[in-house]
Amino acid sequence: MTTPQYTHGHHRSVVSAHSARRASEAAAFLLPRLRSPMKLLDFGCGPGTITVDLGEALLPAGSVIGIDFSEDVIEQARAHAEESGSANVTFDVRSIYDTGFTDGEFDIAYAHQVLQHLHEPIKALVEARRVLKPGGICAVREVDWGTAAINPKPPELDRFLEIYFAVAESNGGRADEGRYLKGWFVDAGFEDLEVTTSTWSFADEAGLQWWGGQWSERILHSNLASRALEQGIATPVELEDISAAWKRWISDPDAFFAFTQVEVIGTKR
To answer: Computed from CA positions of residues 127, 112, 88, 15, in that sequence, does the dihedral angle turn out positive or negative?
Structure first.
C-alpha cells in the first residue's frame, strides 16, 4: 500500500479540527446529486464526520464506504459512526491509489482536502474513475492556500505561509492545489466538468478562536511542525513565534482570514 506523507498528520489538534467538518458545508456542492440507493466512496475520509452525514443523505437504501490510510483515524471514524447510530456507513484502511474495489462498484466518489497531499493526484483520480459506474461522478473539494487573505499579517504569519507551502512541497503535495483541480480532472479522463468555488472566512469571535487556536497548536505539535524541523525549513524558535502570533491575532479587533475552496464534479462516460 502506498502511504502518502500527510502534511498535517493526526495529532489531536488536527483530528479535532477535522471532526468539526460536516457534509452540509464540505459537500454542499454534491448533496443535491445524492439519491438512494446510490453507493458512495469517500476517499481520505479522516475521522468520518462528513462520511456519516453523506450516509444519512443516502437513506434509506444507499450506502457509503470511507477509506483512509491511517488505521488510527479509521478507528476514530468507526467509533463516530457507532456513536451516531449509522447503519449504512463502513470504514476501511485502504490506499486511494489501489483501493482493491472492483471496476464500476460505485455511483459516486468524493474527497475533501485530500489530493493536495498526494504525490500523484491524477493517479488517485484515475483510480476513483475506475471504481465508478459509467455515468458515475467524482466530486472533490480542495483549498487554494495561495488565495489566503490575512489581516493583520505580522511577519510571523507571512513566515507561517512560507513554511506551510515549503512543507507541502517537501511532502510531494501542493498548498495551492485548488487552482489545478480542474486540469487534473481533465487529465484523469473525466468529462462534463462542473467547477464552483466557495470561501472559508473567519471574522467573528467564535471563528477566530477556532481558526487561530488550532493553528497556534498545530504549528507546534502536528506533522507540519515535525516535518518543518526535520527538513530544516524552520527552527523551533520560529515555530514558537508563529504560535504566539496566531494567539495575538485571535484577539486583534481587526482580525480576519479568508481563502478559496475549489469544487469540481466530473462524470465518467
So the answer is: positive
As a CATH number, domain 12-267 is 3.40.50.150
27: closest CA among 113, 95, 93? 113
For the entire predicted model, the pTM comes to: 0.91
Q: pLDDT by residue (tens digit) across 246-257? A: 999 999 999 999
Rounded distance, CA 40 to CA 110, Å? Answer: 7
pLDDT tens profile 40-81: 999 999 999 999 999 999 999 999 999 999 999 999 999 999
Short-list 72, 9, 61, CA closest to 227: 9
Pairing of strands 256-267, 63-68: unpaired
- Neighbouring CB atoms inside 10 A of 96's CB total 26
Closest CA to 95 of 70, 64, 113, 132: 70
Among candidate residues 83, 36, 97, the one with its CA nearest the CA of residue 64: 36
